[in-house]
Design brief:
The protein is α+β, with helices and mostly antiparallel strands. The chain has three domains: 11-261, no CATH class; 270-374, no CATH class; 393-457, no CATH class. The chain is built from 14 helices and ten strands. The protein has helices at residues 11-38, 43-51, 59-69, 93-134, 144-152, 160-166, 171-208, 213-226, 236-260, 264-269, 288-293, 393-399, 421-433, 446-457, and strands spanning 279-283, 297-300, 326-327, 354-358, 363-366, 371-374, 402-405, 408-411, 414-419, 439-442. Bound molecules: zinc ion. Zinc ion is lined by residues 4, 6, 285, 287, 289-290, 348, 351.
Length: 458
């Protein structure tokens, strides 16, 4: 699929990603440096090679700036990666397994806790976004630091246990956070596997080409330099770029889970009481696909009823006059082609679109600003009103079709007349001129079965 890069328009989300990326980039660099040293490069040379990104960026200085910027929030440290010497003459599958086990351990030590931290912060950030929107507070330009100071008195939890201890999370919220974290953990493991594969492939290639260990080591980096278009999928830079896609997409997903989770109880209640239906408008996202979906109205449903492989409310048995599109926490397009995309956030890699709650009576989506806004003047359009109220027994009876004469059935407030196919068009024309007449129903059409045969059963 084509990649649509988008950037979050909420500052605290951009910053979360900025830190996570910097940390992971530095970690991936350290892994390649350690591999180079294991292959025989001097530490000095290995670092020198890793520091210089093709083109402009001085990696080390870049990382330092970001780590300094966030040092009051994050204290993650990256230790040296120093695997046992890689002897290229003796790289048996067993030795590779050993190398990989060492890398796995290093990875887990450095990545597990920050992944959980990001899941927690991303989720809490989503909850705050919901909070800010509810209170009509400006939030898009708030920094991560400000949010933590203002909303968490400077101390924001960084693991899931602490979140549950400190905050009164509903079960649905716990489930949403757990699921979002599982998805992050899965993608983090996938990245680990890609890095292992990339190192082994590069080194094996060097061995096959009869290169010396030092040459292979420098290939790990120099290939990067020769690979300005990043076509080699096994370079350090490709690994770092892949990571950027993961962090961006996963942070959007966990943020969105945090946005929607507080509404899940209402969404569940709305199945019995449609007055509680919770609507959202899809906002943000800068790619063509997202632009074409801007302002789409959707309704939140509990995940438990969205199991049938459909996003249609109707197909879930919910008839809603305002929209037929259901969303639920964790809805995604994984494995779906673009033409089959569902309306969800994120809908594609790098997607930063989000759902904004909307009260259809008092608010509207303004395509000019791309935001949900209060209606200022008298309402220009009011969504079609349907009677949602619970019907009593009598009303239910009244709604059922009932035979009231020869070829006549009443259903609700309408009266229908069964007519032969030959006279249907004439009767229809007559009815169009005078709609007080019974509504003609063609005896050979599908409506006939639905209305007249149903009425005879009563
Ligand atoms: Zn998009």
């Amino acid at each position: 699929m084509e990649e649509f890069r988008e950037e979050h328009d909420i500052k605290y989300m951009r910053e979360l990603q900025e830190y996570w990326d910097a940390y992971m980039y530095a970690l991936i660099s350290e892994i390649y440096v350690g591999t180079g040293i294991a292959l025989g490069l001097s530490a000095g040379n290995a670092y020198k090679l890793a520091k210089n990104k093709p083109g402009e960026l001085q990696k080390a200085g870049f990382f330092k700036g970001i780590f300094d910027k966030f040092k009051s929030i994050f204290s993650n440290k990256i230790s040296w990666f120093r695997p046992k010497r890689i002897n290229i003459d003796k790289m048996t599958p067993e030795r590779w397994d050993k190398f990989n086990r060492g890398l796995d351990k290093y990875w887990r030590n450095h990545v597990d806790s920050i992944s959980e931290d990001m899941a927690v912060k991303g989720f809490l950030a989503g909850r705050e976004t919901t909070n800010f929107i509810k209170k009509k507070k400006p939030y898009k330009n708030k920094s991560l630091y400000q949010v933590i100071e203002d909303q968490y008195q400077g101390k924001i939890p960084k693991n899931i246990d602490n979140v549950y201890k400190k905050y009164d999370f509903k079960n649905s919220e716990k489930k949403a956070l757990n699921n979002a974290f599982s998805s992050i953990a899965m993608n983090v493991t996938k990245t680990n596997n890609e890095i292992k594969e990339s190192i082994r492939k590069q080194v094996q290639q060097g061995i096959d080409d009869n290169k010396s260990a030092t040459m292979i080591a420098s290939d790990l980096y120099w290939n990067v330099e020769k690979d300005e278009k990043l076509v080699n999928k096994y370079t350090a830079e490709t690994m770092r770029r892949n990571w950027n896609r993961v962090s961006s997409t996963e942070l959007s997903a966990v943020h969105e889970a945090g946005v929607l989770a507080p509404y899940e109880a209402e969404a569940a209640e709305s199945l019995r009481n449609p007055d509680k239906a919770k609507y959202f408008a899809r906002v943000g996202g800068t790619c063509k696909w997202c632009q074409s979906k801007a302002g789409t109205i959707v309704r939140l449903v509990p995940k438990s009823i969205a199991l049938g492989g459909t996003e249609s409310l109707k197909e879930m048995g919910i008839h809603d006059p305002n929209t037929d599109i259901a969303i639920w926490i964790g809805k995604n397009n994984v494995g779906r082609k673009q033409v089959e995309f569902w309306i969800c956030c994120p809908a594609h890699p790098y997607n930063v679109a989000t759902f904004n709650p909307i009260d259809l009576k008092t608010e509207f989506y303004n395509p000019k600003t791309g935001d949900v806004e209060r209606r200022q003047e008298r309402k220009k359009f009011v969504p079609k009103k349907l009677d949602y109220s619970q019907r009593n027994k009598e009303e239910k009876e009244y709604a059922k079709p009932a035979v009231i004469g020869d070829n006549l059935v009443r259903m609700g407030s309408n009266v229908y007349e069964a007519v032969d196919p030959g006279e249907y068009n004439t009767k229809l024309e007559r009815w169009k001129r005078d709609t007080m007449l019974p509504i003609p129903v063609n005896r050979s059409g599908p409506q006939y079965i639905r209305i007249f045969e149903e009425a005879r059963k009563q």
